[in-house]
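#help-structures
NK: newbie question, is this the right format to request a structure? protein is DUF2905 domain-containing protein
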Amino acid sequence: MTPTVGKVIILIGAAILLVGVVVYVFGDKLNWLGRLPGDIRIVGKNGGGFYFPIVTCIVVSIVLNLLIVLIRKFFG
């Protein structure tokens, strides 16, 4: 392994830690996440169902892409 791989692993760990702290501190205020208009929810008659949060996935993807672009702009 090279030192570059070690740096990438440390950055990934720091990002996971940051997400964990945000969820821990603001968890009760993030109830809207996963319940956005456009998320697909099908409830069956016997209590089963299908749920796919497509709009939430799109929003999270856009935010993560913007963060990556900003990180690359300032540190790359």
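mod (FA): yep, format's fine, and the tokens are attached above. The chain has a mean pLDDT of 89.
NK: thank you!
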